[in-house]
Amino acid sequence: MSDRTPVPEFDASSLIADCVAKASVGSGSQLVLAYSGGVDSEVLAQGLASFARHNPQYRYLLVHVHHGLSSNADAWVRHCQSQAAKYQLPIEIRQVKVKMGPRLSIEAQARSARYEAITSLMAPGDALLTAHHLDDQLETVLLALKRGLGPKGLSAMGEVQAFDNNKQLLRPLLSISREQIESLATSQAIAHIEDESNQDTKYDRNFLRLEIIPKLKARWSSIAVTASRSAALCAQQQAVIDEEVSKRLPSYIVPVSQGNGTALELSDLREQGVNWQLLLLRGYIEYLGFAPLSQVQLEQVLYQLLDARVDAKVELRLGDTLVRRFRGRAYLSSVEAEHAERINAPILEWDLTPLLSPDCDGAGGVVQIESSEAELRLSVSEIKSLQVRMLSQLDRVRLPNADERVTVRFAIAGSTRCSPHNRQKGRELKKLWQESGIPPWEREKVPFIFYNNVLVCAVGYWIEKAFVCRDASAGLNFKIVTRNSSFPFTHHQP
Fold first, then answer.
1. Bridge partners of 454?
2. Does any domain span residue 93?
3. What are the distances in angstroms from CA 263 to CA 107, 477, 482, 488?
């Protein structure tokens, strides 16, 4: 007779039902399973199939991501497609390219690519199911300790979490051990794949899973449960901190002058104790959607922002996050976004002929119109275009004469004399920038429209008085348009 303790059984379908109820997933929403075909996701997929038979009010989708990192990847795709047919659940296969490099973590890059591929198939209100379990939680806590993270990091994973534009993340198996999952798969003969990379201990999670956690469990059999309890306590404490930060933070955030986005007011931050300074700075970084900084990095940023000389140029690059200081305010932007925003050329010629009315007389006279849906766009960077529409309302400049060449120019001389329509007197450009509080790195991104060599307008800021349409005649309205991108933009709330 065996003295082995029986492994507790569980019902994945019931666990899914509990999570869906806790998350209040609305009828008609889609339940999306991150489906690798490994034993964990296979057990969850079977449970989802059972749940789906009794809950037709939801839509269902399995998503398998082909990373192209294994010679077996194509076979894994065929396995997942075959299993999905048995479960009678729809499946999407997404092939991604994982960024590789000497300073890049393959694990992190694969996870990021997988996340983007899956969430691209989701809409607000949908829920993503992942097969994370109790032992994964222990691994996450140990990795957080290794990285020196605080309560937020140690709170690890939650069973139900909101994420990414009103979506829900559900982890129905978070209270279930790896042993329970493998036992159920064996007893029910659930077919699954084995990823050979899971045996490679050069990856931190595999090292913990294969070499460290078995020894910990041999000494303390309930360590996964107690670590999960500690994580829950950290999450509870972090929730209180987050609630308080969310109440305080808005009073430190100010809109940027003449544009979209925000900055952090440093004079107010300086009045707080150092612990609250760190919490508020961390909260602002999270609010903008940037990757969290380590405690050492936060302290370095805080020192530079608050203690560097008033006339010192503060510009710190930390991963993809760029932190600058200007006139007592902190500005955060993405290095990748700034690279994509670099202008194509300092001077761009623009042919507006396709937009102009055939009734133009060639000397500025035009037919009266209410509005026009027609528009032209000129690409000025990888992610930004300059849009022009012909309107008889809103702020607009007069149409160019037949002999006037239209150009778009950037970074024009600060000594350029300007006569903005919204000022009584003209001034040099550099004085206008200083007056408006526009940071230096933003000034070079502003497009200026010229007719021949005469300044017409600074897009988004002013129109030169001599070129303003003051009656109901048609004119041109210029606007910068940003195309969709996967990274946060300068000053923009995500």
1. 451
2. yes
3. 33, 28, 20, 14
Report the distance separating Cα 454 and Cα 464, nearest Å.
10
Dihedral sign for Cα atoms in the order 467, 472, 475, 477: positive
Tell whether 358 and 260 lie within a shared domain.
Answer: no
Q: Pick out the residues of the known binding site for ATP.
A: 36-41
C-alpha dihedral sign at 202, 203, 207, 210: negative
CA dist 492 → 276, 485, 488 (Å): 24, 12, 7
Strand (E) or helix (H) holding 21: helix 12-23
Domain span holding position 381: 342-482
Task: Give the model confidence (pLDDT) of 302-341 as tens digits.
Answer: 999 999 998 889 999 998 899 999 999 999 999 988 888 8
Statement: residue 437 has pLDDT above 50: yes
Same-domain pairing of 46 and 112: yes
Any domain includes 202: yes
| pTM across the whole model | 0.75
Q: How many domains does the chain have?
A: 3
Alpha helix stretches (DSSP H) within 88-146: 106-119, 134-146
What is the CATH classification number for the domain harbouring 261?
A: 1.20.59.20
Whether 179 and 306 share a structural domain: no
Cα(146)–Cα(387) distance, rounded to whole angstroms?
Answer: 50
Rounded to whole angstroms, the Cα distance separating 4 from 7 reads 9
Backbone angles phi, psi at 119, to 5 degrees: -70, -20
Q: Give how far the C-alpha of residue 460 lies from the chain's centroid of Cα atoms, to the nearest Å.
A: 25
How far is 492 from 494, CA to CA, in rounded Å? 6
Closest CA to 192 of 314, 36, 20: 36
CB–CB of 416/464 below 8 Å? no
Task: Name residue 478's beta-bridge partners.
Answer: 388
Residue 251 lies in a domain: no
* 494 within a domain of the structure (yes/no): no
Report d(CA 427, CA 425) in Å as an integer.
7
CB atoms within 10 A of CB 448: 22
- Residues 319, 372, single domain; the answer is no
- Whole-number Å distance between alpha carbons of 216 and 218: 5
Last residue of a domain, one of 340, 371, 393: 340
Known binding positions: 36-41
| Burial class of 71 by CB neighbour count within 10 A (0 to 12, 13 to 18, 19+) | exposed
| pLDDT the model gives residue 35 | 96
Residue that is written with structure tokens 């019902």 in the block? 11
Give the pLDDT score at 106: 79
Q: Structure tokens of 342?
A: 């670099």
Convert the pLDDT of each residue in 149-167 to its tens digit.
888 888 889 899 988 878 9
Coil, helix or strand at residue 121 = coil
**CA nearest neighbour of 384 among 303, 479, 487:** 479
Query: What pLDDT score does 368 carry?
Result: 42
Question: Does 401 lie in the same domain as 288?
Answer: no
Tell whether 173 and 28 lie within a shared domain: yes
